[in-house]
Each structure stands twice: as structure tokens, then as C-alpha cells.
Amino acid sequence: MNKPEFIILGGSAGSFQVIFGIIKKLPANFNVPILIVIHRGKDKNTHIEEVIAHQSSVKVQEVKDKENIINGIVYIAPADYHVLIESEKIFSLDNSEPILFSRPSIDVSMQSAAEVYGSKLLAVLFSGANSDGAAGMEIIKNRGGQIFVQDPKDAEVDIMPLAAVQKNAGIKKMPTKEIESLLINISIK
Amino acid sequence: MRLGDNSKDLSFEELETIIQFVYKIYEFDFSQYSKASLKRRFERLLGAHNWDLIDFKTKLTNEPNLLDFLIKEITVNVTEMFRDPEFFRSVKKNIIPYLDSYQRIKIWNAGVSTGEELYSFSILFKESRMYNKSFFYGTDINSEVLKEAKEGIYSIKKLKAFTENYNQLGFVKPFSDYFAVDYNNGIINSELRKNCLFSVHNLVSDHVFNEFQLVSCRNVLIYFDQELQTKVIELLVNSLCIFGFLCLGSKEVIRSQKILSRLKLIDPRQNIYQRIK
After folding, report:
1. Contact call for residues A145 and A172 (beta carbons, < 8 A)
2. CATH number of the domain bearing residue A134
3. Which ipTM did the prediction report?
């Protein structure tokens, strides 16, 4: 497996604990940027990045507009904005209509990242209650990137990983533990 | 393969050709807009009409009056009243008491779109008993949305969502006091509209047109590249009187040290500044 240049982790609100459980275990020398796109209510969990940053060895912060993407930082999509990536590897925020009732939309970030990173992109889709992410995963796959889903049996709500499996035949389903070691091993490469 | 059923796939190179083409025909300059967003908007437009790149360029060439339509389709006009109640709470606490000492207050909402934020300010000033000495200027590059803004008519469904925002602000009057309802729509009271003025202004190419005590431009800069953002922020700051307030979207960043040296940070979370020189 090639070392990715960019990682996207997507899920809806229920996947929060699982994703942050993984982030907390990443070593301080982890050196690939990660974007986390989680559907979150507008008013809830507004300061989650501060809570997570406090408990992690890696740097965790909310995406700001036109911010340079830096290796080893874990970025979190802000509530109520889509996160896009410019060809110069800068984040851009976008306030346009929700897609599949979601803003941030996992599909939108995945598509945008796939266009910039191509085969150097790795994405994992976690638990969720709608099909956001399934189309984005297909775009990543078509551009040569690597895609994985949390094993639907492990997911709190399996609609999201199942939709991705349905759209992407042969996609690797991984138990949470394996996703964790997959990411930790990237930092060793 | 794109998101959405009908979206057309454009490369960044094709986007560049569209930008140059639009400039050649209409002298309208998208070249410093954020490319990732702009690409999505053009993909959506081409997809919705089932045009390929050649159809689209033919259309642009043959119909010289397409610019207004194009701007309306390409710019993002998503807005709501009292969007981010936390922001309005901060304005109420940090700005309103300060501005009350002025005899006459001018507020500029740049990128006013369909008017929701400007009317939110006018309600806030009404609640604060400062409406009668205040004038509210709303500008946008899109004359179509300005017509809607001027009318001040919003669907019941939208007004319901606005009410939830409003109710978080602890105002005295119920939100329903500020509009009249017919079957499907509500219209903002004429009393609230009378001090509101709407006009076309392009932040990219137009200049300072008045002096304001408060300038609000939230979630407009995100559609521009960094260089253009700096230029526009300078225009916004130059439009303020000394000790006037600037409000940007909470995820927008002022990176120019020169501009930052003219400002005092009032609320870091809500991104509110005061001009000090």
C-alpha cells in the first residue's frame, strides 16, 4: 500500500466516539493530514475540537477558510460549511446548499480531495444514517485512491457503510480495531 | 462521474477557459474567486441545463444579456435571519451599547443576498430602541436577489426556522410582531423596511461609497482567493469610521498584518473587530 498524502474520515454524529477513539491513539509523529467530516448539529458540540485536542498527541483543529494543509494535523470540518480543497492544497469553505441534507457533506469533501490528491488519497467511511459518502467513495476509487468502510456489523448505524458497500463492490470492510492499526501504521512508513 | 444526477464534470483547466470566456464577453472577472467552489457552481449550472462546454460558450456568445442570470446561478445566496444566534448575541452585548452614543448610525451589509441578515440587524436595532436613528444599506452584485431583499417576503417554512434562531436571543417581543402573514408567506413590516436601502455594489471592482459605524460581511470572503480577500477586507475597513465595527464570518481569517494593525479584536469566536486607525 502506498503512503497516502491525505486522509478523509467520514461519518454521522453516531460515529463521533469511534473516530475520536482512533485519533487519540495516533502517535505525535503522525505525518499525514487528516480531514474529519462528521455530520453535526449546528448548535451542538461546537467546541469538540478543543476537547479532542486536549486528549490527543496529534494537533487537532477546526478548518478555517484558505488555510494551508499541513502534514500531521487533524482537521475537523466546521458545522454548517462544506469543506473543499483547492489545487494548491489549501482548504476552502463553502456555504452552499446541503447535499443529502448534510452540510458538511462527506461526498463534497471526498470529491474535491479526489480531484486534488488522486491516488494519494485514503478514505474511511464510518457509521451513519444516510447514504452520504457512498458516491464520494466511488469517485475516490475511480481516481485510484484507497477506500475502506467500517464493518457494517461494527457500526452503530449501518446505513452509511452499507450504501458505500453497495455502490463500491469489493470495498474492504474493516473492524474498528483494524482501521486503527491501518492509520497508526501509516505514520511508520 | 459526479455527485448529483446531472452534474457535469469540469477540470480546473476547463474552468480557466470559462473564466476567460466570461471576462472576454461580459468583462466580469471571476479569476480571483475560489476555484474549488466556482468549479462546483459551474458544474451544477451546466448539469442543470444539460449543456456541455461548447453549448455553454455558444450560449454566452449569442445571448449578451446572460450576465445577471449567470451571476445569480454562480453566486451562493444561502442565508437566513439571525443565522448563528451566538453572533447576534455578541453584537447585542459588544456593539449595540457602544453605538448607542452616536446621533446617527449607518450599517452596511455587504453581500446582502435576499436580505435576511439586514432585516435581522434592523430588528436588533428596533429591539434596542435605536432603529429611528439608523440606516441599513444592503448591497450585492446580483440585482435579482436585491429585488427579493427589497420586497422582504419569506415563506412560512423559512420564517419558522428564523423564529427558532430569534427565540434564542431573549428579545422582548415575539418574532411574529415583525411580519404580516398571508397563506404561504410573511412580509417584513414596512416600519422595519423603511430605513433599509438596497443597491448593486461589486466588492471586487467598486469602491468605498459611504462611511459606516458597522460593516457586516459574513461568508462572502470564503468565495474569494487570499489575495482578493485582503483587497476586499481593506475596502471594508476603509468604509468604517474610526471605532466602527467589522463583522466577518466566524471561519474567515484576516491574514494581512497591515490590516490587523488597524483593528482591535473584540470577539475572537464571532470574528468581530473594531477599527482603531
Report:
1. no
2. 3.40.50.180
3. 0.92
